[in-house]
Specification:
The complex is a heterodimer of chains A (about 775) and B (about 300). Helix content of chain A is about 55%, strand content about 10%. Chain A contains 27 helices and 13 strands. In chain A, β2 and β3 form a beta hairpin. The radius of gyration of chain A is 32 Å and the shape is elongated. By secondary structure, chain B is mostly helical. Helices cover about 80% and strands about 0% of the residues of chain B. In chain B, α2 packs across α3. Classes of the chains: A alpha/beta (about 775), B mainly alpha (about 300). At the A-B interface, α10 and α11 of A face α2, α9 and α10 of B.
Chain lengths: ~775, ~300
């Protein structure tokens, strides 16, 4: 069982953009403030504005990521402003106080994950402002009181502190000593600065969209942090100290008599150890790990978000120039724009380009880049949320007991995704359909090749048991003849049924392109319809595969000696679709793995797999193929009946595969035992269970004699409902029932057959742990 | 008071060794070596202001020794991970480093030698041989199988013996000891990061997180031990401090006996079978010889 560290956010897609934006905000804020001070803008004398990005990152990502931004920008700014380095500690203290406060008050959830209200903004502002101003004031005071005496700088020197001392003399003379004045002076300056800092940071947070974590933690759980952030902080902090030693070993503040080797003073060393001690304490007592339920929830939520973003971002074959530019500048894998933005500032100093004109141009460009990143981020997050919502509607339609109006909702989703003008929904007992006329405004056509002619698309949902029965076929044939659509999408659960091929062929000959789509194909439709070019590429792919199918070329060749790759190619298409949409850091459990077609496919995709097989012959093949695949270190193969072992010993899988296993049970009681086992195996948040159940099996024209259960699909689905309650689970029939006839004259394929010819009815179910 | 500080530093080091032993089997030796080197360096960083630049030749030496010692930790974790090998069985082999230091001092640094030092070295070698023979000798293969951990410990001892030689050589050149120490740690961390950071960072998700916490705890103990020892040396002579520090192996065997008596950590810290009367006698004799040998070598 895994008990490793847990990351709260994904490094590349969620953390890095925020860190870079935060650093840019800090650099630009500090520069603009310095610029205003040099031009004698009165208010700028009391401001620093070098912590807007720190506050923003701390609120969005948490205390230690905020501290990283703080210390990283202090490292950069330390080389620009003579007395900046020692105040890196202030940045760290501010980040920690804001980060913990923001987590405690769930500010990210309220402002970034959903639309922010004014009330929440005010509440957040007050909390963050008070805690940040106190923390930064105290840290600033600590640095000053330690460093002023060695450089013989008076505690009370400039106008601000003199005013504070004057005020203290009037209010409470005992507190007007130089030491107290320094304390109150530092605190009051931070109060002024942090008012604006926190305000600007909260505006940024409210403009920054984020995907929801979906967990409901207690206060104690909320303020737990990930070990990676602490680790990264210590590394960046180390770099900061090294830079300070190399570039600013001596420092002299304005008003000081002489420069000091500040890093050699024991009191400063103690101060420098302070963030490290806090990091160690946080690491020991506050980190998330997989040994508790909340840690596992956070981890599975993160991996799910990663899968969602990857699903959106990394379709290499469907990527287009404009999309790549957008992703690489602001989000996604490369972040060239943001990295370049941060790097340009110190490079300008090194190359001597650093002039006032450059500074102002840089500040403008950096703010524009930040704004563009926010815009891009919003586009992506909204697309992901929309896709999620639409995919849920589709899942509801495929549910074995769909909610009322599921058909209408699904039709509306498809019509909206296609764009253009759509008709009302026609609901016939055999088929529900909608007609969509695509024009220049529609998503698909507006940037496509045949842009001049309006096109008519029909989307139909097989209404009678989700099967394309003869009535539905007849209705589609009539629609094709009467409306003359260019394309018909027919969504049903028996799309791959070979008996439908003659009818499909007939429709194609009338001039309309008919595409039968099962759940996986329909979900790919939703994914692709987000961008016109992507949709056209999807359509082209669909056209090629349908034509190949009509020509009889999609069957896998029968080969005498299967290698591991051949076997992996035999995995069920629906299951492949599911696997490709789960993050490969997850665990997959293949129960009744047979010779390992699904295990091998999962291994090829990078998953860790637990494969369990009870038959020795198949198990030997399974282990051989796993070794051949070269990924045996990621697989655990067990020779056992999964019903007899405690599956929780092997971890919590995100996908449990039970294909072709449940038909072996000999009684309803045994079936129930197995289903209970499966429901326990799928306890992980968002876990999915993929079942392929075989009914009405005939071996060489006779009924099986091994005592296997004779159960109808309806009875089986009732049993599924008994163990997978609708409040917690969603059960979909995604493929079937499809009648098949399989010939095994050439010997075993993905399993060892009990006969040379097997006739059967197969149904594939996907059971999802509800969100 | 300062003698107590030295004793405390010895106990901190022993504590760190026991923690390392406890976790050694829960992950990969390479990852543990990575975290050990990196964390030790991180803990030193706030002291960076005390570091002074050193000549390139000295830097190159620090880099070479850093590389050797960084990777030398990997076999040490392998040794700790071997089941049934208590720390007390490995200690005499780790102490072999004193012999390598002695040889280095004589042949590389050209330091004068004395008969006592050679006798001391001989006693340590004898101590190691006695431990090797704590199991009845049947075949050479069996001997090698049962003594895999000591072999790893010897590799560790060879690598770690380079450190005192480096200190001695560079201090003789007039360089600051803390700076040498810092650069050594810097290069150790750099080399191990260059070679195994990816695997080690991914191991964060795979290795038991408790083990990871314990590694950091052990490094804090070790760093505290080093600081206490350095502090004690500012007040008392090395000739007083070193013999106290040499009692470490004796404390280890006492700790193991206590653990066995209390029935604690039998599977992870010491093996159930490892304290037969033959092996206990061999181990006690070996530790006594190693300590005596060490004291002879340290005698001025």
């Amino acid at each position: 069982m895994l008990r490793g560290a847990v990351q709260r956010f994904n490094l590349i897609t969620e953390t890095l953009p925020v860190l870079l934006i935060g650093t840019l905000l800090n650099i630009v804020g500090r520069y603009l403030c310095e610029f205003a001070q040099s031009h004698h803008v009165e208010i700028a004398r009391f401001l620093f504005l070098d912590m807007v990005g720190t506050a923003f990152s701390a609120i969005v990502l948490g205390p230690w990521w905020g501290a990283i931004v703080g210390i990283f920008s202090a490292t950069i700014n330390g080389n620009f402003y003579s007395n900046f380095f020692p105040f890196g500690i202030v940045n760290v203290c501010g980040a920690l106080s804001w980060g913990y406060m923001a987590f405690a008050l769930r500010i990210r959830e309220q402002l970034s994950e959903r639309p922010a209200s004014i009330r929440q903004l005010i509440r957040s502002f007050l909390g963050l402002f008070l805690v940040g101003a106190f923390a930064c004031g105290l840290a600033s005071f600590a640095v000053e009181i330690v460093l002023y005496p060695p450089m013989q700088r008076p505690f009370v020197q400039d106008a601000w502190y003199e005013r504070v001392q004057h005020l203290l003399r009037m209010l409470e003379p005992r507190l007007s000593t130089d030491g107290w004045t320094l304390f109150w002076g530092a605190l009051s300056r931070e109060f002024v600065d942090k008012t604006l800092t926190v305000f600007l940071a909260l505006i940024c947070v409210a403009c920054f969209d984020a995907l929801s974590d979906g967990t409901r933690p207690t206060l104690e759980q909320r303020i737990r942090v990930d070990a990676l952030s602490i680790l990264c902080f210590t590394i960046i902090y180390g770099a900061y100290l090294c830079f300070a030693r190399i570039f600013r070993p001596t420092i002299k503040f304005t008003g000081g008599v002489h420069a000091v080797d500040w890093l050699t003073y024991p009191s400063i060393i103690a101060l420098l150890y302070f963030p490290l001690i806090l990091a160690i304490v946080a690491f020991f007592f506050q980190t998330l790990d997989q040994s508790d339920e909340y840690g596992r929830q956070v981890e599975s939520s993160r991996l799910r978000r990663r899968a969602l973003v990857r699903r959106y971002l990394t379709r290499d074959s469907w990527r287009f120039f404009g999309d790549q530019i957008n992703d690489q500048v602001t989000l996604g894998k490369k972040l060239y724009g943001l990295i370049g933005g941060v790097a340009a500032w110190p490079l300008s100093k090194i190359t001597g380009l650093h002039t006032v004109d450059f500074g102002l141009t840089y500040a403008g460009a950096a703010l524009a880049l930040v704004g563009y990143s926010f815009y891009q981020n919003r586009q992506i997050i909204e697309s992901i949320k929309r896709l999620n919502a639409d995919a849920l509607v589709l899942r509801n339609w495929f549910d074995i007991r769909p909610p009322p109006k599921a058909t209408e909702a699904a039709l509306k989703v498809f019509a909206r995704r296609l764009g253009g003008v759509s008709s009302a929904e026609y609901i016939d007992p055999s088929l529900a359909y909608i007609v969509v006329e695509l024009d220049q405004r529609s998503v698909v056509i507006s940037k496509g090749e045949n842009s001049k002619q309006p096109q008519i698309f029909v989307v139909g949902l097989a209404h009678s048991g989700k099967l394309m029965d003869s009535a539905a076929q007849a209705l589609i044939s009539t629609i094709v003849l009467e409306i003359r659509p260019q394309v018909v999408f027919a969504i049903c659960s028996d799309a791959t049924d070979p008996s439908l091929l003659p009818w499909i062929n007939k429709v194609w000959h009338t001039g309309a392109e008919l595409y039968l789509m099962d759940w996986s194909s329909a979900e790919r439709f939703l994914e692709a319809s987000d961008r016109p070019k992507m949709f056209l590429a999807y359509l082209a792919q669909l056209r090629v595969s349908t034509k190949a199918r009509l020509a009889g070329g999609t069957r896998l060749e029968e080969v005498e000696q299967l290698d591991y790759a051949d076997l992996a190619r035999r995995s069920l298409p629906g299951l492949s679709h599911v696997l490709e949409r789960i993050d490969s850091d997850h665990l997959v459990m293949d129960l009744g793995a047979g010779r390992g077609r699904h295990t091998l496919h999962a291994l090829q995709l990078g998953f860790r797999v637990i494969a369990i097989e009870r038959k020795k012959e198949a198990y030997q093949d399974l282990t051989k193929y796993i070794i051949d695949s070269g990924r045996s270190e990621f697989a655990t193969a067990l020779l056992a009946d999964y019903a007899d072992i405690d599956l929780s010993m092997y971890g919590r899988p995100a996908l449990v595969i039970a294909t072709g296993t449940l038909q072996h049970v000999t009684s309803v009681l045994e079936l129930r035992t197995h289903l209970e086992k499966l429901s326990f195996a799928g306890l992980e948040r968002y876990a999915q269970i993929y079942i392929e159940m075989l009914f009405d099996m005939i071996f060489d024209d006779s009924k099986p004699i091994d005592g296997r259960i004779d159960i109808s699909p309806d009875e089986f689905e009732s049993e599924l409902h008994r163990f997978f309650l609708p409040t917690e689970w969603q059960i979909m029939r995604i493929v079937g029932p499809i009648k098949r006839s399989q010939l095994f004259c050439q010997g075993p394929r993905s399993f060892y057959p009990p006969a040379k010819r097997i006739d059967l009815v197969s149904i594939e179910y996907l059971i999802i742990h509800s969100e | 008071m300062h003698v107590l500080t030295v004793l405390l530093s010895v106990w901190f080091n022993i504590g760190a060794d026991f923690v390392d032993k406890l976790i050694a089997r829960t992950g990969r030796a390479k990852d543990f070596a990575f975290w050990t080197n990196v964390i030790q360096f991180m803990l030193l960083l706030p002291l960076v202001g005390l570091v002074t630049p050193i000549p390139y030749k000295a830097l190159a030496l620090c880099a070479s020794v850093g590389a050797i010692t960084a990777y030398g930790r990997i076999p040490w974790y392998h040794a700790l991970a071997v089941q049934g090998q208590g720390l007390s069985r490995l200690t005499p082999f780790v102490r072999l480093s004193s012999i390598f230091v002695l040889l280095g001092a004589i042949f590389i640094l050209k330091e004068p030698n004395s008969p006592e030092r050679f006798v001391g070295g001989g006693l340590i070698i004898l101590a190691s041989i006695i431990v090797l023979l704590d199991e009845p000798l049947t075949t050479v293969r069996k001997l090698l199988e049962t003594n895999r951990a000591p072999l790893f410990a010897i590799i560790f001892a060879i690598s770690s013996s380079a450190v005192p030689l480096l200190y001695k050589y560079l201090v003789n050149e007039g360089l600051n000891l803390f700076s040498i120490y810092f650069y050594l740690k810097l290069f150790q961390a750099t080399f191990i990061m260059l070679s195994s950071s990816h695997g080690a960072i991914s191991s964060l998700h795979m290795t038991s997180f408790v083990a990871f916490k314990l590694i950091i705890f052990a490094r804090i103990l070790q760093t505290c031990a080093a600081l206490f020892y350095l502090y004690a040396l500012t007040r008392i002579d090395l000739s007083v401090a070193e013999p106290i520090a040499a009692l470490g192996p004796f404390f280890i065997i006492v700790t193991e006996l206590l653990l066995r008596w209390k029935n604690v950590g039998l599977d992870k810290l010491i093996s159930r079978e490892s304290y037969s009367s033959r092996s206990a006698t061999a181990r006690a004799l070996s530790v006594a010889l190693a300590i005596f040998g060490l004291l002879l070598m340290l005698r001025r």
